[in-house]
């Protein structure tokens, strides 16, 4: 499948190599708002076509799929336009800025009969499946509580989209995407009720703390922010044991990819599981397996984030309204 890329920012510089090293994928075009940046990027990464403006990418016959790596507030517009141009879509997380926009992306892809996937790579790592199977198979007894923390410490460059409300910035959407995702995956269902409290800066959440209430007395507490050093861990605590992973969003680069099981006898077992999550994610999009489950989960995650954002604004717990979808191609 021939990919065209929208945006030349931080994540593109990393994911372009993952695309180029995945079997069955070629990166044939790069688009930027600036022709100069597109040309520079194309020459650095050996990409044949450099185009100015995102529409020009959609007009390219050499592109079958778009990797959309723009600030969240632009995802809906360009994902819908890509679908309408008949291109498959790999859209960066968060899928959009709210569930309504996320559903609009899904609807456009359905209508155009193209495939779409949010670029939430950890979901595709073999370790994630192992940990989820272990918890869902009763390996920790009855699940009681999930804790998760995802953060990094600024500095930001001026104009950084993460600090701009109009571009869909803020740690709650950006990093809450991961924390909500792991809590819901571990719980195996979406929460019924949520609460969030945020420390704001420039009208976006710089830090957010959240509580999620699920069925059967399962709860989760989440901490995300741009004001503490890098954290990407979770713990799923059950009646007999806990699963702990300190890098679930993306394995630390210089260490063995692991997770741990702590049992009530005080024993600790380490499990190793190496994988290349970005390649697995890309393979999932370009393959022929149904994407319905991933699509549904992305939209539901967005709905939980909607409720958390509303909760922080209204300073009260909010009931979650979980949308359900028609089937994906
Ligand atoms: N999956 C992952 O691990 C990660 C995912 N992300 C996600 O990827 C997306 C992009 O993040 P990131 O690459 O860090 O962002 P950057 O700000 O580094 O890059 C975004 C790119 O979008 C383009 N763009 C278009 N309009 C604007 C605008 N008004 N302001 C700023 N940039 C604009 C620019 O490219 P140009 O000017 O060339 O057109 C810019 O380089 C976000 O949704 C983020 O959450 C980010 C990091 C890691
Ligand atoms: O998704 C992401 C992964 O983590 C990064 C920080 O390390 C975030 O900034 C980013 O948006």
Automatic annotation (TrEMBL):
Q: Which Gene3D superfamilies match?
A: Dihydrodipicolinate Reductase, domain 2, NAD(P)-binding Rossmann-like Domain
Where in the numbering of this chain does the Gfo/Idh/MocA-like oxidoreductase N-terminal domain appear? Answer: 1-115
The record's annotation in InterPro entries points to: Gfo/Idh/MocA-like_OxRdtase_N, GFO_IDH_MocA-like_dom, NAD(P)-bd_dom_sf
Query: What positions does the domain GFO/IDH/MocA-like oxidoreductase occupy?
Result: 131-243
Annotated GO molecular function terms are: 1,5-anhydro-D-fructose reductase (1,5-anhydro-D-mannitol-forming) activity; nucleotide binding
Going by the record, the broad EC class of this enzyme is oxidoreductase
Question: What keywords is this UniProt entry annotated with?
Answer: Oxidoreductase
Question: What EC number(s) does its UniProt record assign?
Answer: 1.1.1.292
The name under which this protein is listed is: 1,5-anhydro-D-fructose reductase
Q: Which gene encodes it?
A: afr_3
């Amino acid at each position: 499948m021939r990919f065209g890329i929208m945006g030349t920012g931080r994540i593109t510089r990393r994911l372009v190599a993952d695309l180029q090293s995945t079997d069955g994928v070629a990166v044939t075009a790069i688009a930027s708002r600036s022709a100069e940046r597109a040309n520079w990027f194309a020459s650095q990464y050996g990409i044949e076509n450099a185009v100015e403006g995102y529409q020009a990418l959609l007009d390219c016959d050499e592109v079958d799929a778009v990797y959309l790596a723009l600030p969240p507030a632009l995802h809906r517009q360009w994902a819908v336009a890509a679908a309408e141009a008949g291109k498959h879509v790999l859209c960066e997380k968060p899928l959009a800025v709210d569930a309504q926009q996320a559903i609009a992306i899904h609807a456009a892809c359905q209508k155009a009969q193209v495939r779409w996937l949010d670029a939430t790579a950890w979901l595709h790592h073999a370790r994630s499946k192992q940990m989820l199977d272990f918890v869902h198979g009763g390996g920790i007894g009855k699940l009681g509580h999930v804790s998760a923390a995802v953060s990094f410490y600024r500095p930001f460059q001026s104009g950084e989209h993460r600090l701009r409300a109009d571009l869909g910035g803020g740690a709650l959407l950006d990093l809450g995407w991961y924390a909500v995702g792991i809590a819901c995956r571990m719980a195996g269902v979406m929460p019924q009720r949520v609460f969030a409290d945020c420390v704001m800066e420039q009208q976006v959440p710089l830090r957010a703390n959240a509580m999620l209430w699920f069925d059967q007395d399962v709860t989760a507490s989440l901490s995300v922010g741009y004001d503490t050093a890098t954290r990407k861990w979770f713990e799923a605590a059950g009646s007999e044991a806990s699963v702990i992973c300190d890098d679930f969003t993306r394995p630390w680069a210089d260490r063995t990819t692991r997770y741990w099981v702590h049992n009530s006898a005080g024993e600790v077992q380490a499990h190793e599981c190496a994988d290349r999550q970005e390649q697995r994610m890309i393979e999932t999009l370009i393959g022929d397996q149904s994407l319905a489950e991933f699509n549904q989960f992305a939209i539901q995650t967005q709905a939980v984030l909607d409720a958390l954002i509303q909760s922080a604004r209204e300073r009260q717990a909010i009931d979650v309204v979980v949308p359900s979808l028609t089937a994906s191609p």
